Write the structure tokens for this entry.
Amino acid sequence: MSTPEVMVRMRIGMEQVHYAGDLVDGAMMLKLFGDVATELLIRHDGDEGLFRAYDAVEFLAPVQAGDYIEAVGSITHVGNSSRKMRFEARKVIRLTGNPDNPAEAEVLDEPIVVCRASGTCVVPVDRQRR
């Protein structure tokens, strides 16, 4: 069974700010990747499974309140109970920083990749789709 790429999109709110300058903790991207992984496993196996480990994580650009982030992922390898996956988070909308209009935002012509990762999830053998 082939599993298509999965994508979630969310707006980063002030409640996610962790650092000065309205910066968001990188762990927020890993939370989004976890949501993507869960959907991938449900679509592939009919079970949420468990995230086992990240093989690599790269934080490439800052994420701030007001940004819209798309997190995408796909299964790259299927083992007996393991599913290797790759993920990418992209900033697609950001605030312009205009002091005269703090709510002014722009849709980016080219999304900015803010994080990449790869990891492995597992699904109990008795819950896998055949």
The chain has a mean pLDDT of 92. The radius of gyration is 16 Å. The first helix runs from residue 27 to 45.
